[in-house]
Amino acid sequence: MIMKKCALITGASGGIGSEIALRLAKDGFAIAACYCSDESGIRKLEKELCEIGAVYKLYKADVSDYNRIKEVFADAADFFGGVSVLVNNAGIAQQKLFTDITQEEFDRITAVNFKGVFNCCQCAVPFMVNRKSGKIINISSMWGVCGASCETVYSATKAAVIGLTKALARELAPSNIQVNCVAPGAIDTKMNNNLSDEDKSAFAQEIPMGRFGTAQEIAGVVSFLASRDSDYVTAQVITADGGLT
Ligand code: NAD
User: Fold this and answer.
1) 77-101 pLDDT per residue, tens
2) Looking at residue 8, what DSSP letter applies?
3) Catalytic residue among 35, 56, 59, 154
4) Phi, psi of 177, rounded to the nearest 5 degrees
5) What is the pLDDT of residues 119-132, one digit of tens each?
6) Would residue 232 show up in a list of annotated catalytic residues for this protein?
7) Who lines ligand 1 at CB under 6 A?
């Protein structure tokens, strides 16, 4: 039996998710790293987890697929003895005029960014309630707080994640489970690869700190929310955006 507490991170093959997995491994958690399709991203993370001697298991799972997510949590219960910290990080973005968004795009973005969070929370909560402890950390976005032009569905799903966080936090507070959100600003990952270097530096100039954030800086906030130091913090949205909003 593995003695370390397990942290399950979705979208662990991506920029922010990989850094969260590494940081929580360094903090002493065993890592259940979920990824969807990016094999090279997850192999890179695996190599880094090995290098630091982490206890980990990789799970290929689309967060929008409830049955597969149920299987992942059942396996994590057997392998790790349960998930103590859930980080809902998987997400997809889209930049498009509102009137050009198709029904299929709407369905896919909401299925991944919002239903995916619902699915993972629903599978994680029974174990946490039994244990009377647990931490759920949802990665929203500053656009979920203030809304972004040409990112209506993305912004709406991220706002929905904030609503779910605040409601679930109150429902689970008597069970000593903390539910919080991180709302990153512009973070230097491949999610922003669609921006040209010129657009990136123009955007950076609008940020009071004058630069994009790093995935490690978001992982640092998650590390706090996963730790005992945040035991009295729940239903909060912690924005990390260099002072932009
Ligand atoms: P990224 O594209 O590098 O990573 C996204 C991850 O989500 C990838 O690992 C991808 O494989 C995974 N994913 C996508 N669809 C999935 C699915 N159906 N099931 C499981 N996993 C899936 O981007 P990132 O910047 O690391 O984004 C991580 C999170 O941070 C996202 O939720 C994103 O919305 C949020 N965020 C990012 C920024 C930013 O500027 N980069 C800002 C605010 C919020």
Assistant:
1) 999 999 999 999 999 999 999 999 9
2) E
3) 154
4) -115, 125
5) 999 999 999 999 99
6) no
7) 10-11, 13-17, 35-36, 38, 41, 62-64, 89-93, 112, 139, 141, 184, 186-187, 189-192
